Amino acid sequence: MVYSSSAISAYVNFDDSYYFLKRQLIWASLGIVSMLFTMNIDYHVWRKLAKPILLATLVLLVLVLVPGLGRVVNGARRWLGFGSLYLQPSEIAKLSMVLYCATSLARSQDKINSFMKGVVPNLAVLMLVFGLILKEPDLGTALAIGATVFILLFSAGAKVTHLASLGLTGVAGVVVAILVEPYRLKRLIAFSDPWADPLNTGYHIIQSLYAIGSGGLFGVGLGRSREKFLYLPEPHTDFIFAILGEELGLIGTLAVILLFFLFAWRGYKVAISAPDVYGSLLAAGLTTMITIQALMNIAVVTASMPVTGIPLPFLSFGGSALIFTLSGVGILLNISRYVSLE
């Protein structure tokens, strides 16, 4: 799907229709190696490494905001690196927050009913990471991390009243974040009526719906998308699901959704059956991290929520996202070795 959706733009911009495919094959190979590595490490090791990994992540999130160090693409400063090699610190933040919160919550099980001692310490770290990622700006990733931590707090046994107050506060915070940035407000307005501004703020959504709608039941055929001919922006990254829907139809999109559903089912089954609290929280966090991203991406592509720049796990083009997602899957697979999934 990466090749099919990117071939035209790759040929136009780089005179090589295989440009993105070749890079994705490299990232996928590195990701699989990373997955095999984490799969064969006892998951308890991550308890000792959670804090150092989080601190390193915070340093990277700060560095990416430094002019001259962070690379700016489409008005967002999200990448660190040089030449053609770039790293997205926010992708590391997704994994490091799961590792840290699972460790913290497992250690403070006797304090989880206390808002100040059980919830606030994790909330403080979340707000720090959330704020740095929001500064890039990347509201979609920040929301995904926030939702994952919320689910972890719920899984750890936090009081419903505490979670309800956090949820209301979070909604209010998101509203403020949208109102203070004009482009986010425009996206919200475009979401409610994309045809009010079809050539600007509503363009993404309209072209995405054209792609999915023209796919019908069985699609127009693999490689035969029309929207990828420079009509739909970001066809191989954030909107790859739209191209998939156009080429493989409703059958193809339902197959992908079913695969994510199966992933979530097995992941949460691992979490429920884990031999200790830490393993349970870690498995729940990793499963949620990937599932939430999939839900958000598909919701954006199908115009079920305003446009946010978040990739579709496993399918979208992107090195950092694929490597760290597969690393998380490796940890989840390691936890599954200690449980019976019959």
From TrEMBL:
User: Sorted alphabetically, which keywords does the UniProt record give?
Assistant: Cell cycle, Cell division, Cell membrane, Cell shape, Cell wall biogenesis/degradation, Glycosyltransferase, Membrane, Peptidoglycan synthesis, Transferase, Transmembrane, Transmembrane helix
- EC numbers, comma separated: 2.4.99.28
The UniProt entry, under InterPro entries, shows: FtsW, FtsW/RodA, SpoVE
Annotated TM spans: 24-41, 53-73, 114-133, 139-156, 163-183, 203-222, 243-265, 277-300, 312-335
Q: Localized where?
A: Cell membrane
Gene Ontology terms: cellular component: cell division site; plasma membrane
One Gene Ontology term from the biological process aspect of the record: cell division
Q: Its catalytic activity?
A: [GlcNAc-(1->4)-Mur2Ac(oyl-L-Ala-gamma-D-Glu-L-Lys-D-Ala-D-Ala)](n)-di-trans,octa-cis-undecaprenyl diphosphate + beta-D-GlcNAc-(1->4)-Mur2Ac(oyl-L-Ala-gamma-D-Glu-L-Lys-D-Ala-D-Ala)-di-trans,octa-cis-undecaprenyl diphosphate = [GlcNAc-(1->4)-Mur2Ac(oyl-L-Ala-gamma-D-Glu-L-Lys-D-Ala-D-Ala)](n+1)-di-trans,octa-cis-undecaprenyl diphosphate + di-trans,octa-cis-undecaprenyl diphosphate + H(+)
Q: Which GO terms describe its molecular function?
A: lipid-linked peptidoglycan transporter activity; peptidoglycan glycosyltransferase activity
Q: In which pathway does it act?
A: Cell wall biogenesis; peptidoglycan biosynthesis
Q: Which domain of life is it from?
A: Bacteria
Q: How does this chain sit within the bilayer?
A: Multi-pass membrane protein
Top-rank EC class of the record's enzyme: transferase
Family, similarity comment: Belongs to the SEDS family. FtsW subfamily.
The entry's function note states:
Peptidoglycan polymerase that is essential for cell division.
Q: What is this protein called?
A: Probable peptidoglycan glycosyltransferase FtsW
